[in-house]
Every structure is written in C-alpha cells, then in structure tokens.
Amino acid sequence: MPKQIHLAAHFPGVNNTTVWSDPAAGSHIEFDSFVKLAQTAERAKFDFFFLAEGLRLREQGGQIYDLDVVGRPDTFTVLAALAAVTEHLGLAGTINSTFNEPYEVARQFASLDHLSGGRAAWNVVTSWDAFTGENFRRGGFLAESDRYSRATQALETAKELYDSWPADAIAADKENGVFLRHPDAGTFQHTDQHFDISGRFNVPRSPQGGPVILQAGDSDAGREFAAATADAIFSRHGTLADGQKFYTDVKDRLAKYGRERDSLKVLPAATFVLGDTDNDAQERARVVRRQQVSGATAIKFLEQLWNRDLSSYDPEGPLPEIDPDVSDEHIARGRASVRMHRDPIAVANEWRQKAEAEKLSIRDLIIEVTGRQTFIGSATTIADSIDHLVQEDASDGFILVPHVTPGGLDEFADTVVPLLQEKGVFRTEYEGSTLRENLGLAPR
Amino acid sequence: MTNLHLAVALDGAGWAPNAWREPDARPAELFTARYWIDLIAEAEAGKLDFVTIEDGLGVQTDDPAQVQGRLDAVLIASRVAPLTRHIGLVPTATVTHTEPFHISKAIATLDYVSRGRAGWRVQLSAKSAEAAHFGRRQIPAISPDKINDPDVRAVVADLFDEAADYVEVVRRLWDSWEDDAEIRDAATGRFIDRDKLHYINFEGRFFTVKGPSITPRPPQGQPVVTALAHNDIPYRFAEKSADVVYVTPKDAADAHRIVNDVKVQHVFADLVVFLEPVQNAAILSDARVFTGTPAQLADLLLEWQEAGITGFRLRPGRLPSDLRGITRGLVPELQRRGVFRTEYEADTLRGLLGLGKPANRYAAEGVRVA
C-alpha cells in the first residue's frame, strides 16, 4: 500500500499571502468564515483545521501595519465553536508557551479535547520579545535563549497535568455514592527552571489523553524540540530536494528519543493555484502574485530588508542605491520573518544585481524574491506533485494555505482530493474518531 | 408590572452536593458536550435571559463522594453557541492568575460566535491552593473566622482592586478597535484605518497592558460583565465594573437594603432552587435556599421584585430536574402572571437586558478632539 497523505487546512493568515481585495474575499472575524472553511476541509476528509496566532498587531515604522489583513479571534474559542459544526476534523490551535501558564493552557486543551470528542491539537510556538510582552502582565520576561527551555518545560508540565487523572478515575457510582474512584486524581508537583507548581489539576483525562502536538520551529533547537516532543512538524520546506533534506534531518533525530520514524509527521505549509490547464494555472498564479504584492506592499517588504523608511521610492522604479541600516533596532516589529535576513547588505547587493540584470522594478523584484506558490497547475498536475513529494519522502502531507477566505479551498476539495483518492493515497472515509487515530499516531 | 429577568446558574450536576446521585442525573456525562448542550437548550426553550456556567482554577472539593473536575466554562459556552440562537451565554472566568489580554479576546470571540450573546462572570481567587497551581505569587490561607481581621481585609481589598483594573483593561481592549476600523480600501491598499485602532496604555498598581486587542470590537461593543457580591468590598467592585450584580438577600427587606446599597444597572438575586418533589434539600449556601412549588417561587420572586430586584439567577439544586422545574413550571406561571416574556424580543444579550450598545470610549474621544 502506498504511503497515505495527510492534509490540513490553514485559515488564511494576517500576511500578504491572503488576498483580501479579491471580490470573493469574506470576513476574517465573522464565525461564518471559519465554519465555511472547516466544513469544506471536513467534506474533503482533511486531517485537521489550523489556526495561527500572533499576540500583538504588527508594526512597521512605529505604526500598525495596515496593508494586510489585521485582526483575528481567540483561538480556543473559535475551535470550541467549530467542534459544534464539524464531526471528524481535527482542531489545531497555535498557542504561545511564553505568555500562557501550564495549568491554564492544559485545562483549555483538555477541555477542547473533551468538547470535540478527541480532536484537539496544539501548535506550540515560543516568543520572547518585549514588544509582544507589552500586552501581558508579565511583560517581556524571557531571554531569547530560554524560549525553547520554557516551551519544553511548559509542554512537559502540561503532559504531567493531562496524565494526572487516570482514565478510569471517575466512577460516578450513584448507588454507593462514589464519584471519584481515585480520590487523589489530578495531584501533581512540578519544579524546574521555569515552573514551581503543585496541587490538583481539575480536568479529567480527555479522549486523546491530551492534544496532538505540532511544532513549527526551523532552527536546530526547534528541530530538536520537535523530535523530542511533537507529533507533527509544520515546516517551510515544500520542494523535493529541500523537503527530503529536512525530512531526513528531523526523522533521524527521533531515534535518540526512542521514537519510531513514523511517530512524527512532517507537514510543510503549501500554497496552490489551480487552473483548467497548467498554462491557465500559471497565468492565474501570476495574477495572484501581483495581487499579493501591490506597489505599497513591495515598498514595505523592501523596508524590512533595508530597515529604513523608503516611502519616497517608486515601486515601479529601480532599487535604492543607499545600503540597508544594520543597527539592532528594527523597523518592523511583531513579525517572525524580519530576522530572516542575516546579512542585509549582501542580500541587498544580490537583489540590486538581479533587478539590473532582469530589468525588474522594485515591485517586480519583490514578486520574484518573496516566493511563488508551492503548487501551480491543473488538478492532475497538483495531485501528481503532492503524491510524488510524499512518496519520495519530502513530506507526509501538507498544510494548505488558501489565499482567499473562506472559499479558497473549494476548488482543491472538488478537484484535487478526488484524484488523490483515486490513486489510493488519501482516505475516502475517516479511519478513526480522534485526530490522533486519523494521523496514524499511537495512543498516548 | 415590568417583566422580570431570569437566569440559571449551571454547575456540575446541580448545586446540591448529592445532586449527581439523583435518578435522572448524568454524572458520567459531565465532561461531554452533549450534557451542556441539553441543559442550555432546555434553558433556551424556557426563554431565559441567560445561563451562567461555573468554573474555577482548582477542584471543588477533596471529597470523593462529590463531583470533582470541570471543563473550561468559556469553551463550554463557545461549544454551545452555534447550537443556540437567543439565550445569553455567561461563562465564569477567573481574573486572579490569568491574563486580561487573553480573557478579553476570548469573551469578544464568544460574542462573535454567538452573534452578540456573550457575557462574563468575573471571579477572583483568594485560595492559596489555586495560587500554587500557578506558582507566581502566594496568597495566604484565609480562614472564614478571620474574614474581618484588618490584615485579611487588606488582602481581599487588593484582590478586588486588581480585579477592577483587570476588568478595566478587558473593557478598554474591547473598545480598542472602532466598529468601522476595517475599511478594505482597494484604492490605497489599506485593510484598516489605523487611526481607528487605539493603544489602551493601561498602567495600574498590578500590571500594564499596551493594546490594541488582536480581536476587533465584538458585536455588542461591550459584552455583559457580571459579578457575584456579598458585602461592601465586592459591592464597590461591582459598581465600578459590572452591568449585572448577583446578590444574596435573605428576604424582601434584605433585598430592599441591598438594592439601596449597591448601584448597578441590574441587581439580580441568587436563589438555590429545589422544586417539588423534594426529599432532602439540606445544603450549605451563601444564597437563600428555596423549596416549594413553582407558584410559591413565583410569589417570592414578585415580592423581591417589589423590593427593587430586577432579575434572578436561580441555581438549580439538581440537574436536570430543577432546571425543568424552572423552565416548565416557574416560567409558565410567570407568563400567566404577565411578568415574563413568551418570545425572545431581542437578538443580543444586551438587548434582552434592555442595555443599549454603548458608545466606544475612544471614538467619543476622537469626536471631542475634532
């Protein structure tokens, strides 16, 4: 039997991938949009629905960034409500391990797991910055170097809390008046560098025994964290060579934690543009890229590398001749990607050379360098690509990011999924009742 | 006579310690969605204004003969929201160890998923055992006989001051986006008008919060904030922070005294309710315990309404039987007497409570500046 593909639906995010100006684009806040995308994903037998999170609105040049979608609802609250309108779909939430305490976050995930009948997943992210910390009573309290140790300990502590109730703790024996079979259910004591807590956890063991754990870090520490603790890794490596390299790297790390190679699923994020033919899809993809990178957006991207106010530059004109400002203070805040450019002056030189050689304006260049869609083609082409990447161990499946909310997955569900099903590489019915079962993971 | 408002307080198998052993109790299902859906659907069939859902950051008791464990109340409310249409959903959430930024967006989001039916019962925690679950501060053990000692009063007063700051932060975050901040202006490429988003810049004795919220202003503008209060310190807190205060009068005269003392838009009386047949309603309670027929309960509610009480939060002794006693016995009795709605007259919780949509504090500022 060929390797089975896992698919997830990412609710479109607060970045320029999401084309809010499309006539079909709906609300990012109203519940109906979440229902629509989740129900499409469930109709297509996807493994799970995925929500990202950021706890401070992004800023650039000291002002709230206004060119992308801004604003999103609370992750747990939306997922609990979606449990009412779906039956099988996993419900994955991104929750920060820095600005949440284990007792509270464990009871929220355990509650979500109960209320969804075993469909909860936690995408564990870390942050440390004082900028985000300004929204929290603790402030920016964590050193960057401690963020993974806090995440590791938060996750470990949460697991101790989930496990503090034996599965059979509740007797509910009316006749003999015994509610709890184990009177000390929930008792815990945990002390480490970050947490010193004890007492009794107050949510009984949930159907999955705790949420499925997703992790998205790409650094060496992030990969190690995933290998030690995660059930699935949300990666950025969606191409064959790059994907295989990443896949092998993280799977090779599992053995030292006594884990099997298939106990960690590698699921790169992927965008897609479908067309009736491959040429049609290429043409649509080009249009989408221009929607995603307006002139104003191109200037803002350029500012993120140059770390300067470039508002006086014409996006249809040439790149700036001045060099990037390499001081520590960065123009963009609340954005993970700003740390991407390790050597801004070298990158700026590359970009200038590329623009000159290919006669590209600022906007053209940004369209070129900020990445095209992962999959472009007819349904057949995309189904073949996805299957090839999975069978060749570049991934175990994909987390698909539509560029239009909430209908951006419809075409994929209607045209690509049936082809994958015909190939015998994607389910036609859900295998189990919990997300863990559908992902083919051992019970915890 | 004006209509009275009716809410029920849902807690586990009911407010009586042995309620879970009643023949129709469902103690093995307390941690399932189905259990809460059924209860809240019953409350909605009775046209009640809202339900509150109890919660806490610890187990209720160490007694294995009683119900222990809870699901997060905000998530229960959210799970039930898409399956109901009219009834207000008022989960309890504790302020003492949690982040106002998280609670603000959670209640705002409950307001979105319920289309304007969200409220919040603010609860603080003075329990040293719950503080140990978080390990970030110590709260001294407070024994009931020391409650009036000056030291203890100072600790409690600080907890309430902190709660008041917390609610202020939550409310400012709800207003931190003006209603029309999302503009989707294709011509300029701007998704929002950032002049309509506001830093809240809260600085208090206990914490600072910058803002704005990541969640736009909820449909009701300000979801309904409620609090239970038994004496002067919490009364002053409720006046400052709440739209609805739950109080615990012993009788009509006491109700009259309390209504004159606590100045909040809605003063609801809490009552633990056992509707017949009752075998044993022995229960230790802060609120008066009523046992009797729906008609007798209706008499009592109307007498207290005369004393100035605007609504009632009934705590069913046993679930589901006393909830059904309320929805199928008390409600028809009140409807016959012309003091309770026969159909929902509004789509939002504020609407049901006769509270208009409040102006945004920051929008009002803008007008003044202009």
Automatic annotation (TrEMBL), chain A:
Enzyme nomenclature, EC number: 1.14.-.-
Occurrences of domain Luciferase-like (ranges): 21-390
GO terms for MF: monooxygenase activity
Pfam families: Bac_luciferase
Keywords: Flavoprotein, FMN, Monooxygenase, Oxidoreductase
InterPro entries: Diverse_substr_monoxygenases, Luciferase-like_dom, Luciferase-like_sf, NTA_MOA
PANTHER family recorded: ALKANESULFONATE MONOOXYGENASE-RELATED (PTHR30011), C2H2 FINGER DOMAIN TRANSCRIPTION FACTOR (EUROFUNG)-RELATED (PTHR30011:SF16)
Protein family: Belongs to the NtaA/SnaA/DszA monooxygenase family.
Protein name according to UniProt: NtaA/DmoA family FMN-dependent monooxygenase
Automatic annotation (TrEMBL), chain B:
InterPro entries, per database record: Diverse_substr_monoxygenases, Luciferase-like_dom, Luciferase-like_sf, NTA_MOA
Top-rank taxon: Bacteria
Keywords in alphabetical order: Flavoprotein, FMN, Monooxygenase, Oxidoreductase
Pfam family, one: Bac_luciferase
Occurrences of domain Luciferase-like (ranges): 28-263
Family: Belongs to the NtaA/SnaA/DszA monooxygenase family.
Name by which UniProt lists this protein: LLM class flavin-dependent oxidoreductase
